[in-house]
Specification:
single chain, mainly alpha, 3 helices, 2 strands, about 80% helix
Length: about 170
C-alpha cells in the first residue's frame, strides 16, 4: 500500500525542502522509501496472482503479467532519457563552474603568497577566504545537481510503482 503520510509532495503536512542539497537528498530518501513500500505491495500482489493463475493463466492475468514487463521497460527508458538529457547539460555547467572556482582559488593563493607588505597580506588573505567560500557554493550546486539528477532518474519508477500499488489494492 502507498504511504498516505508521504503522498502528494508533502510529508506529515510539511512542504519538502528543496533549498539545500541536504533537503534534496532527504526528499530522495523519502521518495525511495515510498517506492520500496509500493513495490513490495505490487510484488506481493503479482506473485500471489501468478501462483494462483497456474500453468495456463486467464487472459486477464496474462495482460497483467505482460503489463509488468512493459512498465519496467518504459520506466527504464524514461529514466535513462531524463538522466541523459539532464546530465549532459549539468556536466558542462558544473565543469565550467568548478574550473572557474579552482582558477579563482589558485589566483588568490598565489596573490597571497606574493604579498610584500602586511597590509597586502591581510587584504589578500581575505580575498582567498572569499574565493574558498565561493567554492563551497559551487560544491553545493554540484551536490544539488546530483540529487536532482537522481530524482529525475527515479521518477518514472516511483510513478509506476505507486500507481500500481493504488490500482492493485483497489484504491
Amino acid at each position: 500500500a502507498v504511504d498516505s503520510a508521504t503522498r502528494g509532495g508533502q510529508r506529515h503536512g510539511m512542504k519538502r525542502n528543496h533549498a539545500s542539497p541536504l533537503g534534496l537528498w532527504l526528499d530522495l530518501a523519502v521518495k525511495t522509501r515510498e517506492m520500496m513500500v509500493a513495490s513490495a505491495s505490487v510484488i506481493g500482489h503479482r506473485t500471489s496472482r501468478m501462483a494462483a493463475a497456474g500453468i495456463v493463466p486467464a487472459e486477464r492475468d496474462q495482460r497483467e503479467f505482460t503489463r509488468m514487463w512493459q512498465e519496467k521497460i518504459d520506466a527504464g527508458a524514461r529514466s535513462t532519457a531524463a538522466m541523459a538529457l539532464d546530465a549532459t547539460a549539468a556536466d558542462y555547467a558544473l565543469g565550467a563552474t568548478a574550473f572557474a572556482a579552482m582558477a579563482r582559488n589558485a589566483a588568490a593563493f598565489w596573490s597571497l603568497a606574493s604579498s610584500r607588505t602586511p597590509g597586502q597580506f591581510v587584504a589578500r588573505q581575505a580575498a582567498l577566504a572569499r574565493a574558498v567560500t565561493d567554492s563551497v557554493a559551487s560544491a553545493n550546486a554540484a551536490a544539488s545537481s546530483a540529487a536532482r539528477l537522481a530524482h529525475r532518474g527515479m521518477k518514472p519508477f516511483h510513478a509506476a510503482s505507486t500507481r500500481n500499488a493504488r490500482r492493485l489494492s483497489g484504491r
